[in-house]
Every structure is written in structure tokens, then in C-alpha cells.
């Protein structure tokens, strides 16, 4: 007897065993989807993770209900990768599966109804007329979908009826799966006769002889299909191609079909069909410094499977990748090229496509589900060399001969998925994926994460440096504007100081452009009543609402709740509500007033919400239609503009000294990266940072573009306080709608964890925002030895949880883990 271990789409920590009926034994394989029963009445689509021939000892297994695929939709290495991810990030294999598959491949459930064989009618509870109707229908049909019952009986509210019958035990309800994938089809045309049937062909020619257009189309078909060229194989013709080739209309084709000469049929096509590689150009020739870095990377790959390329902003890392990719492709292997979602601009894709043509597959979250399925299928079915350029979810594609993984901007926090599980870091997962494939990984950044740099200094990764910008461009000059001074002397109104204004003006007048960075969106982050001190808070979260002027709304940036700004204070009734603080909307408005005649664009979550918003803003700035680009962290990342000579930072204070061990790292990265947008060509760029603490050491490192110095000071702190990379941090979150319950559950759980992990447990604490979307949140920090096995830690956490699991407050709470939080 054959058994399978199946992954179910449920947040359960294990896989489940089912037996395979003999009829399916030779069709089933690892990676196939199956329909299984789970619990008493529920059915799910599951995925075969492995096959085995011994049954589990301690329980009786159920049989698989059905096999859904004729061939597997996932490759074996993918499943190993999912298992690793579920262990490392302490989540359920089902959660990983849900994240990995495009949703059209994980079909939705639909209710299927059957009679309950154990049902015994009792005199005390007779069936209603409608129930009896459903009963006899099911007796006849066996099992039916809810929608079909609705159709056959033409009675209303079948769902409620079914529910009542279910409660009475008359019927069973199961979940069945419907496929949501929409294939793209094309119409093909073929001739209805054999090649040798000369008589029939003659007759056809006669049939069309009175319509010149029909004759023309038939002749064109005979030509295109090679019907008359006996030495060549006969081919069917795509409808569009025939209409174009014969200059005909669909009506003429229809006439030919009606006469029985031609006939049409449909075939499914992959939207991302692999075609022969179209004409491409070879990679750009490298500068001397780039060439040297490239050969060092190659050399380093001999000793290390992972190499860090530490290259300053504008050093031309992309061109180096292109050369590496080219080599791997020539060897017939596949490449995964990961970038933060936001970098997937046409700026980048065009550059890469120029070299690799349609070997390049771009994959990101803006694709429709069916498009994702087609990409999935192309990667699944292809043995050809490919490059997938994508955001973090591209990690899950069914690669086959992965030879190289590139993680651009490896320090980026957007590689980390926060919600829902799996809360994985795509960079670290990519290294594991590469390892499983025996592939190499190149990590690259101008500001590598502390962990990565530490590993490369300690010879776990190779290290290659590229210290000059391409084409001899210089790194920009960084100056500070002391807000404290200016406020003391009252020489600043608003947030744009006179020096910042004047230098921006000068830059623009000399034909340059400027980027202004402010890390808050909206108009003003707080509103307060002058009379009574009332301030609007979110209904569902523990945060102030942000005022958005254009829409005159107050918005919650955590849950999206919004409401009109009240005209009078709801607490005291006075007309005295003022707004304070500066978001991007206000900065853009102020710049507009201070620098009349110059065009200001804004780039933040609000202006880029629609599909092409981001692209349009970048193109307008790139072409010089706009002069100043004001934005949130979106403007700090990866953008490459010729003409930006000034970068202004409105207030660095908001980045410095957060109560969190990563705040310095985040601040340094953000400031160094945004600086890196300035002066990327001939002209030396400038950076002006406004701050009330110009002596902050982090700012000193930014001024000198001194990554190493920053690293030295940061790694010393991390060692002193026992933070990563010297330990591994796991955050446990406890969530509950009830404030008392959440506190109780969190302290219970922390206590239980302390019994096992001792002083490695810190907390419980209130996170920075301790209530989000009506849920109260508490956190517990667990610091374990850097080399600890996460599988083991997961087991111990599980044990700690089970010890308190029967407590009602723990039971009513949601508990989840965040491993390696960023
Ligand atoms: P980075 O990613 O290191 O910040 P980019 O790869 O964006 O830098 O390169 C910066 C700019 O220099 C880009 O506009 C790129 O086209 C150009 N560039 C870099 N290397 C070359 C090269 N070898 N030949 C031509 N242009 C190059
Ligand atoms: Zn008031
Ligand atoms: Zn909210």
C-alpha cells in the first residue's frame, strides 16, 4: 500500500498521512495536488510532499478522495525549500504553501453536499417539505454542489436550509475546489481535407471561384500552411495570421467554414510563451574597476558559495550582474535576480531585457493571478536557461537548474515579509534556496546589513569591494543644517530653512534637479484643539490620525480608517483645531510657494497607489518635466537619474534614536542611500541634511560616506548588548481583542518560556503601536545563541505554549512568531 504525506492549507504545524487507492498509485507523485478529507466533514486541496510505503502506527489513515493533476505542479526541491522555511520561520508548512503558490493554483473551496449515511430520521423531528425535497434530490444524485441544488430546486436561501439540515445531521457538507485560472486561448485554422485529396481541393476551388475574397483567403491559407509544398510539414495557421496575410475579414473566414472548407479550433497559450531568444545586445563593456570586481567575484565563488559585493552607490553594480548572468545563461542554467519591489521599474527591466531579450521573466505583485500561473508554468516546464527578475515572492517559482541568485540591495527591509506568515526574509531564504540547488549567491549593497558584513569579515561569505563610482563621478558632499540653532534664533519658519531653499533654487537655476526626502506622508501628522487639547485618534488603533489636506481627511496609517477633519472640536465645541507637523504633502506645498515657477512632484504611498502612478512620476522626473521630487523612503531606493545634483533631508531626527536595536542601521542606510541619488554623473552632487543633532555619530559617518566606520561602532554595540549577529532574535506576538486577556496571556506565556529558556526571554512588552485594527498586541523577545537550531527552538516554544495552552486567555489569543525581525 502506498501512502502520502500531504501539506494542507491550514495553520497546522505538521503534514498529514493519507493512503493512496490502487487506481491512483501509478499516477500520483510528489508535487501533485490531491483532494483529501480532514476532520469529519471538511475536504481540502492538499499537496503531496512525499510518498512512503509504511503507514503511521498510532492512527488509522483515510484514503485520498481524488487526484487533481495529471502531472505535478511543484518540483521536489521546492517542497524541501518550503519545509526548511516552515522550520526556520516557525510557521506551518501550509502557510508557506499558501504564500508560494499563485492563488489560481490553490483553488478556492466550494461547498459540496452529500447525505449523511448514519442519519436516522426520528419521529420527534420531521423533515420540512423543502428538506425532504433536498433529501430526495441527494438520494438520486449522490453528491451535489450548493449552486447546483439551488438551480435544480429553484428555491431561495438554500445555504440556510443546508445549514439547518447539517445541524440536524441529515447531510454532510464538504469543501470542494474550483479552479480560478483563466487560460488565454488562440484560434487556429485548418483545412478539412487530407493533403492527398486532390478531388476535394478542386471542388473547393470551384466553390470559392465566385468570390474573389474567399478565393484569396483560401489561396493564402494553402500557401501559409505549406499545403502545396510537399517536402515541408503541414501546419495549421493562427486565425489572426490568416486574416492579416489574406487581407480578409472574420466574415470571409466564417463563409469558408460554413462551406465546409476550413475549420477552427482553440488552443491554450502561455502568456509568457518562450520564443527563441530575440535579438539582443551584448553586456556593456566594463570599466577597469568593474572588471576587477567581476574577476574577484568569480575567484571568490571558488571558495565561497555566497559573496558580498560592497559597491558604493552609482558604481554600476547592475552591469556587473549582467556579465555574471550572461555566463550562467551560456552554461544553460537559470538565474534568480531579486530586487526590492520598488526597484522593479522600467528603468531596470529595460536595461536587463536589452541584453537577454525574452529569456528575461519579470515577476512581481502587480501581475494578475492568471499571469502568475502562466509564469509558473513556463518556469515549471522549461529546461532552458532563464532569468527571473522579481520581488521577494519570485523565490517560490519552480526553478530547475538554478545556477546563480543575485540579491540586489541586500540590506533592504522590504525583503522581509511581516504579515501574514511565513514571516520570511527573502535574502536569507534565497541563500538557502541557492544552497539546495548547489547555486552561487551574490549579495550586493552600498550599505550592507550588519549581519551580512559581519559574516563576510568572518569568512562565511566572500567579500568584494567596489569603491569608485562609474565614470569617475564623485560621491556627494554632505552638509548639515542645524535646526536647533535656527529655532533658537527664530530664523526658520516651517520646515524648509533658508539655506535649503537657496541652494535648491540655485541648483534648479543651474539646470539641475533636486530630491527632497521626508519620512512621513500626508499633510500633518497631528491635529490638536487649541482650547481643550483634544486630539483625534484612530477608532481601532493606538495612534494619532494624520491629516491629509487634499482630501480634508484624517487617516490612520496602520489600518486605513479615515474620517473627515471635524470643523469644530467634538470635545469643547470650539472652532480651534490646528494641525501640526510636516508630511510630504505639506513639504511639497511649501516648496511650491517658496520656489514659484518650478514644478514639484510628490512620490509616496498616496500618489503611487494606482497601477502606473509610480512609473509616471519617475518618467516625468527623468525627462525633466518636473524639477523637484518630494517623497518618502520611496525616493531613497535604487533610482538612477542623470541630473539630480541636490538631495535634501527635511528632518533626520525622526530617523535617529528609535528604541530598537536596528534604528542606527536603518538611519545610516536610509541617509547614505538617499545621498547616493545625488551627483551620479559628471557634476559633483550635494546633500543637505536638516537636524537638531548635527553631532550625532551616525550623521558623522554619513558625511564621510564611511560605511566601515559605522560598521565598527555598530558591531561593538551589538556585541555589548547581545544583539544579532551575536544572537538570534525571535519575537513572539500575542494578539487579543481584549486588553486584560492579552496582558494575562502574554505574561503566562513569558513565564512558561522562562522555565525553558531562562533569561533569554525578555518581556512581555507593549510594542510601539500596541493596538492595531482593534487587536491589542504584546511582544516577548527571545534571544538565542546564534548557532541554535531553529527546528529545536520551535519545538521548545511549542512545549512552552502547550504548558499554558489550556488557560482561557491564552486560548482566546492569537500567538505567532517573527524570526530575525528587521
Ligand atoms: P548602482 O546600482 O551601483 O548604484 P548602476 O548599476 O545603477 O549603479 O549604475 C549607475 C549608472 O552608471 C547607470 O546609469 C549605468 O547605466 C551606468 N553604468 C555603469 N556601468 C556602466 C558601464 N560599464 N558602461 C556604461 N554605463 C555604465
Ligand atoms: Zn477642544
Ligand atoms: Zn487604525
Q: In brief, what are we looking at here?
A:
By secondary structure, this protein is α/β, with parallel strands linked by helices.
The gross shape turns out to be: globular
- The end-to-end distance, rounded to whole angstroms, is 47 Å
**Total number of helices:** 25
Q: Structural class, please?
A: alpha/beta
SS elements, strand count: 35
Helix coverage percent of residues? Answer: 25-40%
Largest sheet, in brief, is: 7 strands, parallel
Determine the strand fraction and express it as a percent band: 15-25%
Q: What is the arithmetic mean of pLDDT? A: 90
Give the spatial strand order of the biggest sheet: 15-16-14-17-18-13-19
Integer-rounded radius of gyration: 32 Å
Could you explain how this protein is built, in words?
It is a single chain. Strand 3 and strand 4 form a beta hairpin. The chain has 25 helices and 35 strands. With 822 residues, the chain is α/β, with parallel strands linked by helices. The two termini are 47 Å apart. The longest helix has 19 residues, at 739-757. The strands form 8 sheets. Strands 15-16-14-17-18-13-19 form a 7-stranded parallel sheet, with helices on both faces. 34% of the residues lie in helices and 23% in strands. Helix 1 (76-88) packs across helix 14 (426-437) and helix 7 (212-224) packs across helix 9 (250-258). One zinc ion (ZN) binds next to loops.
Amino acid at each position: 500500500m502506498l501512502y502520502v504525506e500531504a501539506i494542507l492549507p491550514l495553520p497546522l504545524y505538521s503534514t498529514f498521512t493519507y493512503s493512496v487507492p490502487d487506481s491512483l498509485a501509478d499516477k500520483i507523485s510528489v508535487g501533485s495536488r490531491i483532494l483529501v478529507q480532514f476532520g469529519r466533514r471538511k475536504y481540502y486541496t492538499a499537496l503531496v510532499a512525499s510518498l512512503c510505503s509504511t503507514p503511521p502506527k498510532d492512527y488509522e489513515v483515510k484514503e485520498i478522495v481524488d487526484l487533481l493533476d495529471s502531472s505535478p505542479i511543484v518540483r521536489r526541491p521546492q517542497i524541501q525549500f518550503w519545509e526548511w522555511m516552515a522550520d526556520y520561520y516557525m510557521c506551518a508548512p501550509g502557510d508557506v504553501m499558501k504564500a508560494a503558490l499563485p492563488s489560481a493554483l490553490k483553488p478556492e473551496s466550494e461547498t459540496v453536499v452529500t447525505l449523511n449515511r448514519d442519519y436516522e430520521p426520528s419521529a420527534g423531528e420531521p423533515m420540512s417539505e423543502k428538506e425532504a425535497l433536498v433529501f430526495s434530490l441527494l438520494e438520486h444524485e449522490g453528491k451535489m454542489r450548493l449552486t447546483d441544488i439551488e438551480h435544480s430546486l429553484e428555491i431561495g436561501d438554500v445555504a440556510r436550509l443546508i445549514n439547518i439540515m447539517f445541524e440536524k445531521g441529515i447531510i454532510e457538507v464538504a469543501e470542494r475546489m474550483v479552479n480560478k485560472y483563466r487560460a488565454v486561448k488562440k484560434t487556429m485554422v485548418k483545412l478539412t481535407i487530407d493533403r492527398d485529396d486532390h478531388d476535394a481541393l478542386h471542388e473547393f476551388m470551384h466553390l470559392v471561384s465566385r468570390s474573389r475574397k474567399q478565393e484569396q483567403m483560401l489561396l493564402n491559407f494553402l500557401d501559409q500552411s505549406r499545403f502545396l509544398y510537399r517536402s515541408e510539414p503541414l501546419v495549421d495557421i493562427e486565425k489572426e495570421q490568416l486574416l492579416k496575410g489574406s487581407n480578409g475579414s472574420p466574415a470571409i473566414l466564417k463563409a469558408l467554414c460554413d462551406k465546409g472548407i476550413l475549420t477552427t479550433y482553440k488552443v491554450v497559450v502561455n502568456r509568457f510563451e518562450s520564443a527563441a531568444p530575440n535579438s539582443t545586445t551584448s553586456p556593456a563593456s566594463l570599466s577597469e574597476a568593474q572588471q576587477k570586481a567581476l574577476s574577484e567575484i568569480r575567484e571568490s565563488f571558488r571558495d565561497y558559495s555566497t559573496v558580498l559585493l560592497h559597491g558604493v552607490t552609482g558604481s554600476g553594480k547592475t552591469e556587473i550582474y549582467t556579465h555574471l548572468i550572461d555566463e550562467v545563461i551560456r552554461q544553460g542554467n537559470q538565474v534568480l535576480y531579486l530586487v526590492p519591489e520598488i526597484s522593479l521599474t522600467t528603468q531596470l527591466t529595460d536595461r536587463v531585457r536589452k541584453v537577454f531579450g525574452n529569456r528575461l521573466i519579470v515577476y512581481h505583485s502587480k501581475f494578475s493571478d492568471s499571469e502568475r500561473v502562466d509564469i509558473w508554468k513556463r518556469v515549471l516546464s522549461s529546461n532552458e536557461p532563464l532569468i527571473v527578475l522579481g520581488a521577494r515572492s519570485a523565490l517560490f517559482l519552480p526553478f530547475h537548474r538554478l545556477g546563480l541568485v543575485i540579491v540586489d540591495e541586500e540590506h533592504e527591509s522590504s525583503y522581509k515579509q511581516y504579515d501574514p506568515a511565513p514571516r520570511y526574509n527573502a535574502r536569507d531564504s534565497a541563500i538557502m534556496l541557492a544552497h539546495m540547488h548547489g547555486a552561487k549567491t551574490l549579495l550586493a549593497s552600498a550599505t550592507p546589513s550588519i549581519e551580512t558584513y559581519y559574516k563576510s569579515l568572518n569568512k562565511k561569505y566572500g567579500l568584494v569591494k567596489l569603491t569608485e563610482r562609474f565614470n569617475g563621478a564623485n560621491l556627494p558632499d554632505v552638509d548639515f543644517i542645524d535646526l536647533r540653532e535656527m529655532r533658537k534664533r527664530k530664523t526658520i519658519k516651517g520646515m524648509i530653512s533658508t539655506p535649503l531653499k537657496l541652494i535648491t533654487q540655485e541648483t534648479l537655476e543651474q539646470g539641475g534637479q533636486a530630491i527632497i526626502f521626508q519620512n512621513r506622508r500626508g499633510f500633518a501628522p497631528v491635529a490638536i484643539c487649541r482650547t481643550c487639547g483634544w486630539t483625534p485618534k484612530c477608532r481601532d488603533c493606538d495612534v494619532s490620525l494624520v491629516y491629509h489636506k487634499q482630501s480634508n481627511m484624517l487617516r490612520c496609517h496602520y489600518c486605513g480608517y479615515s474620517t473627515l477633519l471635524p470643523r469644530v472640536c467634538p470635545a469643547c465645541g470650539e472652532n480651534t483645531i490646528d494641525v501640526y507637523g510636516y508630511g510630504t504633502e505639506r513639504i511639497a506645498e511649501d516648496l511650491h510657494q517658496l520656489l514659484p515657477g518650478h514644478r514639484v512632484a510628490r512620490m509616496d504611498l498616496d500618489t503611487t497607489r494606482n497601477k502606473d502612478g509610480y512609473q509616471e512620476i519617475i518618467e516625468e522626473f527623468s525627462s525633466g518635466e518636473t524639477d523637484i521630487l518630494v517623497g518618502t523612503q520611496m525616493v531613497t531606493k535604487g533610482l538612477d537619474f542623470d541630473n539630480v545634483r541636490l538631495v535634501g533631508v527635511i528632518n533626520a531626527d525622526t530617523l535617529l534614536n528609535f528604541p530598537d536595536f536596528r534604528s542606527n542601521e536603518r538611519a545610516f542606510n536610509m541617509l547614505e542611500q538617499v545621498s547616493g541619488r545625488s551627483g551620479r554623473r559628471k557634476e559633483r552632487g550635494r546633500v543637505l541634511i536638516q537636524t537638531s543633532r548635527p553631532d550625532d555619530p551616525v550623521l558623522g559617518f554619513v558625511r564621510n560616506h564611511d560605511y566601515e566606520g559605522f560598521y565598527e561602532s555598530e558591531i561593538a554595540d551589538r556585541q555589548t548588548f547581545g544583539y544579532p549577529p551575536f544572537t538570534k532574535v525571535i519575537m513572539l506576538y500575542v494578539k487579543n481583542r481584549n486588553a486584560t486577556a492579552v496582558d494575562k496571556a502574554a505574561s503566562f506565556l513569558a513565564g512558561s518560556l522562562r522555565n525553558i529558556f531562562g533569561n533569554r526571554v525578555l518581556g512581555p512588552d507593549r510594542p510601539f503601536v500596541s493596538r492595531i485594527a482593534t487587536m491589542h498586541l504584546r511582544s516577548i523577545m527571545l534571544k538565542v545563541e546564534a548557532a541554535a537550531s531553529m527546528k529545536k527552538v520551535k519545538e521548545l516554544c511549542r512545549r512552552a505554549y502547550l504548558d499554558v495552552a489550556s488557560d482561557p486567555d491564552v486560548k482566546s489569543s492569537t500567538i505567532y512568531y517573527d524570526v530575525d525581525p528587521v
